[in-house]
Amino acid sequence: MDIIKVIQDKSKAGEEYFKLLKERQGKENVEVIKIVEDIIEKVKKDGDRALIEYTNNFDKVLLKNIEVTKEEIKEAYSKVEDEFIEALKTAKENIKEYHSKQVQDSYILTKDNGIVMGRTVRGLDRVGIYVPGGTAAYPSSVLMNAVPAKVAGVNEIVMTTPPSFDGTINPNILVAADLAGVDKIYKIGGAQAVAALAFGTETIDKVDKIVGPGNIFVAMAKKSVYGFVDIDMIAGPSEILVISDETGNPKFIAADLMSQAEHDVLASSIFVTTSRELADKVIKEIKLQVEDLSRKEIILKSLKDYGAVILVEDLNRAIEIGNVLAPEHLEIITRNPFEYLNDIKNAGSIFLGSYSPEPLGDYMAGPNHVLPTSGTARFSSPLSVDDFVKKSSYLYYSEKALKNVNSKVIKIAETEGLTAHANSIKVRFN
Amino acid sequence: MDIIKVIQDKSKAGEEYFKLLKERQGKENVEVIKIVEDIIEKVKKDGDRALIEYTNNFDKVLLKNIEVTKEEIKEAYSKVEDEFIEALKTAKENIKEYHSKQVQDSYILTKDNGIVMGRTVRGLDRVGIYVPGGTAAYPSSVLMNAVPAKVAGVNEIVMTTPPSFDGTINPNILVAADLAGVDKIYKIGGAQAVAALAFGTETIDKVDKIVGPGNIFVAMAKKSVYGFVDIDMIAGPSEILVISDETGNPKFIAADLMSQAEHDVLASSIFVTTSRELADKVIKEIKLQVEDLSRKEIILKSLKDYGAVILVEDLNRAIEIGNVLAPEHLEIITRNPFEYLNDIKNAGSIFLGSYSPEPLGDYMAGPNHVLPTSGTARFSSPLSVDDFVKKSSYLYYSEKALKNVNSKVIKIAETEGLTAHANSIKVRFN
Asked: Band of the pLDDT at A134, cuts 50, 70, 90?
């Protein structure tokens, strides 16, 4: 049994593989939707009492305080390694620096006869970040969600995450949240946390937007409250596409493919290369390296089910495949990787050269690791400051300015059959 | 029977009215969802054949050509008044000028040791605009959707709209589309048009994003295909909030409230003022003016059901109400309207002064008329160039640069339990 499919480009097998990737998406679960709707209704009705009850039922904790106290945060710092804190601080500064370039200014346009118009840009008032519990509690995700919100000028950032059996929160998460400038942290998880953020309770003020990953209950709850509040996109299975010519280092490429594969059995790691020889070496390296990795089982299943090595004629075709698949992560490990930057139309995050592996971007460099998955990079973008602002247009015309265009406005209004629109111009000059 | 409710601020009636506004939202219709899903499946399976069949069934037209021909567009010009074309041209130039200020540039950040990173911004490849038929066929909406897409650098803009009984398209719509630079126009409406845009047929290439208003079938179809393609927000009932002190002109205010009310019986027109006297005059003016308006019935029903005059103590409280309701349109008709610009946190579009009525913005001035409705201005923004671009981040580290941070990346990866992530850094320095 092969560890990963090897596919000749433009073959029947290639077509089938592309089709398989498209169908990776999980189906919505009607039972889950029903459960989630009930939870939301109860939280809307009973507020904190419902939160305490659900946390008792699902997390097996009878909460004394819903909000994490200052003392608990202080204690978390004492439990966390200094090197980890230093690493998070460097990451935070890099993320802040990178995202600061995304701030959009309000603008103004002035024209003759006293016309003034433009657009104001403001941070959202209040944002809620959901952080999963257990093994999926990633401090890096806290930074990646909170720092852009902070840069955007969000007034208040709150976080919610399920408690452990003993009623505490993972100290790594608490430290990351504190460093990132999160204002309040709540010990609530699941659909009940999403409901509380969307509609508010006695303790938790409702927010304007909910971001962050979660299990199927959290995802369905976010979908359900969308419209009352904004949400980030609901992430599908993720993927990496590595493109290389014969100059690629097989050790590095094998390692990078596996770093994606370890996330999830639905994750997809794809290697597209012009070199059959390199392909063979990469497969050999995977077999070697996987033995020492703690998530070996997940990696092997993910590579077997959704991974592939695709052999192409030239790098232009490799880029073309990239544009069709629109991968979340795209590594270009070629002689002159920058040469392809203009040709890459669809990708969440692009990693150029041999020393820019995906984990560098996941944790440290500055670009966001919340990225459009499952081919949605065709129309979606990495999480950014843009996601935490709202805009308003504004318009001022003087009497003279309006008079100059009044017949044109009336003409369009009447053509559209909207006579009250036309009337609103007419009454001003009768 | 009063023509519109008059409510004292902070009264029980005020509370009830705010609650009523929140509940204006229409319920989703399960039957419609089922019908729409069937249509989508059939279009996916049968392509053009399904489109022809549905158009025959629903629009009572046996189409000879799905795509509008050059001759049909030429003919449309001959059917349209010159003054209308001139008005559209002025509107288009104003919209283009206003939206050009929204173009975001790609950026780059360079750091020591050869680090390069940044973000590229590109127009979407292909966008589809849905335009309703019948009395809701608004040429101004064609401009408001197509021009920002054009400014964003979208490669191809297509439009789809249901044909009339004789197989033609409203010439005003065709002319607007042609002026706006729409590349292709299809004579298909309803859920079948949305399905064709999302998944493609022999004649219609699939798009990356679908925008534009539509009836319940179109809205549900957009919701259903969301994820395969992007969509704009599904608009709820719309509203105007006019704020005035005693200096407001009652004629103007009455006319502006009715220009919103004529859209829809669910539309909401709200007048908030510090002056009881002005309130009375506005109501008198509504009664006078409404008699001459063609959509009188809709206006009266909308004002009665969802309109209100709210009497407040001072303008600060009026602005506060504005921020709570987060109206789609906000007119500030006061002595010094610009003074309040900083205090308005939540509004789609803001109209300042006595000569900037909503219809000026709907048709002519430049800002977009596609706006967040039903209080979503708390977290959503007017349609803009931002809605027609996608972004990718890119990252390059040299060997030396990666070496400098390698222990920190490994520390975070291992803390998160992702050993394959750590491995991808380690293999590069073993």
From this structure: confident
Q: Are residues A38 and A94 in the same domain?
A: yes
Residues from chain B contacting residue A91 (CB–CB below 8 Å): 408, 412
| Residue B392 belongs to a domain | no
Mark whether B22 and B36 lie in a shared domain. Answer: no
Q: Check CB contact under 8 Å for A255 and B124.
A: no
Mean pLDDT on B285-296: 97
pLDDT at position B144 is: 98
Q: Which ipTM did the prediction report?
A: 0.96
Question: 3-state secondary structure string, chain B?
Answer: CCCCEEEECCCHHHHHHHHHHHCCCCCCCHHHHHHHHHHHHHHHHHCHHHHHHHHHHHCCCCCCCCECCHHHHHHHHHHCCHHHHHHHHHHHHHHHHHHHCCCCCCEEEEEHHHEEEEEEEEECCEEEEECCCHHHCCHHHHHHHHHHHHHHCCCEEEEECCCCCCCCCCHHHHHHHHHHCCCEEECCCHHHHHHHHHHCCCCCCCCCEEECCCCHHHHHHHHHHECCEEECCCCCCCEEEEEECCCCCHHHHHHHHHHHHCCCCCCEEEEEECCHHHHHHHHHHHHHHHCCCCCHHHHHHHHHHHCEEEECCCHHHHHHHHHHHCCCEEEEECCCHHHHCCCCCCCCEEEECCCCCHHHHHHCCCCCCCCCCCCHHHCCCCCCHHHHEEEEEEEECCHHHHHHHHHHHHHHHHHCCCHHHHHHHHCCCC
For chain B, the domain total comes to 3
For residues B21 and B71, state if they share a domain: no
- In a mutational test of the B interface, the residue from A95, A252, A403, A418 whose CB has the highest number of chain B CBs within 10 Å is A418
Residues of B marked active site are found at 328-329
User: Can you give the CATH number for the domain in which B314 is found?
Assistant: 3.40.50.1980
The yes-or-no verdict on residue A5 having pLDDT over 70 is yes
Contact A102 B83 (CB under 8 A): no
Q: Which whole number is the average pLDDT over A372-391?
A: 96
* B360 vs A358, A386, A409: nearest CB: A409
**Assigned domain for A296 exists:** yes
Query: CB A102 to CB B119 under 8 A?
Result: yes
Of A393, A408, A412, Cβ closest to residue B382: A393
Quote the minimal CA–CA distance from B252 to chain A in Å: 6
Considering the domain architecture, whether residues B47 and B164 belong to the same structural domain is answered as yes
Active site residues of A: 328-329
Shared domain for A95 and A242, answered yes or no, is no
Q: Of A231, A253, A284, which residue constitutes the final position of a domain?
A: A231
Question: Domain limits at A411?
Answer: 397-426
Q: Are residues B289 and B344 in the same domain?
A: yes
Q: Is the pLDDT of residue B138 over 70?
A: yes
* Whole-number average pLDDT of chain A: 95
Q: How confident is the model at residue A1 (pLDDT cuts 50, 70, 90)?
A: low
Residues A256 and A344 in one domain: yes
Closest residue of B to A108, CA-based?
B101
The nearest alpha carbon in chain A to B249 belongs to: A428
| Shortest Cα–Cα distance, A51 to chain B (Å) | 25
Asked if residue B373 is part of any domain, the answer here is no
Same domain, A301 and A216: no
Residues of A with Cβ-Cβ distance to B381 under 8 angstroms: 389-392
**CB contacts, 8 Å: B115 with chain A:** 365
Of B210, B231, B252, which one is at a domain's C-terminal end? B231
Question: Has residue A381 been placed in a domain?
Answer: no
What pLDDT shows up at residue B24?
78
How near does any CA of chain A get to the CA of B363, in Å? 6
